[in-house]
């Protein structure tokens, strides 16, 4: 089931959208300000967001900027009362995929949602050449030979260290929970009594650079841009 995040400060609008989207087979979540929108996108998995521009706490354009800066592949449909072309162009320039003005017909919005999600599905299903190299901020991973270089210098990583480094380099800027890392790297169901993820993060910090892996208290870790 596809998951849609609705970010709008008008309860009437969010209730209307939730009811309509759920009736058409979508799972929904709602936030009412820009800060909560960013937090939801960073910490939960969504396929599409419907975003009002005039959000309290953080403007919709700021939300768009943060999502795109983090490199999160999320389709975003702006839903706004601004009809001017400048607002539309600005939204597209900051990473919006579509723009609908209020008042709107739900049938049109639903068609746009389906079109965006269909386009993403088609793009993801196209065959492509397998990746051989990953790189980020001076770190180079050869996925075929498992060779690692940091600023041009060879670094030896164990197989688990390599998989953990790969998980981070594939998701720069995204918060990676301990649960997800344990599942991706070790294939384990999360055990709150285990500190194996923390131990291996410590190993990576020593080999790749302590400044690259940021601890997100109570959540996990993030490969930082700073």
Automatic annotation (TrEMBL):
GO molecular function, one term: transcription cis-regulatory region binding
Alphabetically ordered keywords of this record: DNA-binding, Phosphoprotein
Any one of the GO CC terms: cytosol
DNA-binding segment(s): 131-225
Domain Response regulatory intervals: 3-117
4-aspartylphosphate modification, residue list: 52
Location of the OmpR/PhoB-type domain: 131-225
UniProt cross-references to Gene3D superfamilies, sorted A to Z: 3.40.50.2300, 6.10.250.690, Winged helix-like DNA-binding domain superfamily/Winged helix DNA-binding domain
Any one biological process term the GO annotation gives: regulation of DNA-templated transcription
Protein name: DNA-binding response regulator
Gene source species: Adonisia turfae CCMR0082
């Amino acid at each position: 089931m596809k998951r849609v995040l609705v970010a709008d400060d008008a309860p009437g609008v969010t209730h209307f959208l939730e009811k309509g989207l759920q009736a058409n087979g979508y799972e929904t979540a709602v936030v009412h300000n820009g800060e909560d929108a960013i937090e939801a996108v960073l910490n939960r998995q969504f396929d599409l967001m419907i975003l009002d521009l005039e959000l309290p706490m953080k403007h919709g354009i700021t939300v768009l900027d943060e999502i795109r800066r983090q490199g999160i592949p999320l389709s975003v449909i702006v839903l706004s009362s601004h009809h001017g072309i400048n607002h539309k162009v600005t939204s597209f320039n900051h990473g919006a995929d579509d723009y609908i003005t209020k008042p709107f017909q739900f049938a049109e919005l639903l068609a746009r949602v389906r079109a965006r999600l269909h386009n993403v599905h088609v793009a993801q299903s196209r065959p492509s050449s397998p990746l051989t190299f990953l790189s980020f901020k001076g770190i180079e991973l050869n996925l075929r030979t498992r060779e690692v270089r940091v600023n041009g210098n060879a670094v030896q990583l164990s197989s688990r260290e390599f998989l953990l480094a790969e998980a981070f380099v594939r998701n720069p800027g995204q918060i990676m929970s301990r649960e997800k890392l344990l599942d991706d790297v070790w294939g384990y169901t999360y055990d709150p009594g285990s500190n194996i993820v923390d131990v291996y993060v410590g190993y990576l910090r020593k080999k790749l650079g302590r400044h690259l892996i940021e601890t997100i208290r109570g959540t996990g870790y993030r490969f930082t841009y700073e």
